[in-house]
Amino acid sequence: MRSPITEAWVPRYFFDIHDGQFQRDEEGVECADFEAARREAVASLPEMARFVLPNDSDTHAFTVLVRDEGGVIVYTATLTFAGLALTNEATS
């Protein structure tokens, strides 16, 4: 007699974003483990920054907060853009 196939439980992580506004992730993503969720968070930061350019200042921070299924924040990562004018022409 064959034993029933059991599906392995895969945890779901939620990736909340703060880039000047807070965006709560209500759907989440299944990740094999914490390390996979961490990699997902780190990889998402440059992608977020790619589409948002600061218009009124030369600084902008992109933060991702990773929550587990219980709602506990288990990881956070921030990518910061900082620009600096090096000539007087830029300030005139």
UniProtKB/TrEMBL annotation:
<protein>
    <recommendedName>
        <fullName>DUF6894 domain-containing protein</fullName>
    </recommendedName>
</protein>
<dbReference type="Pfam" id="PF21834">
    <property type="entry name" value="DUF6894"/>
</dbReference>
<dbReference type="InterPro" id="IPR054189">
    <property type="entry name" value="DUF6894"/>
</dbReference>
<feature type="domain" description="DUF6894">
    <location>
        <begin position="12"/>
        <end position="80"/>
    </location>
</feature>
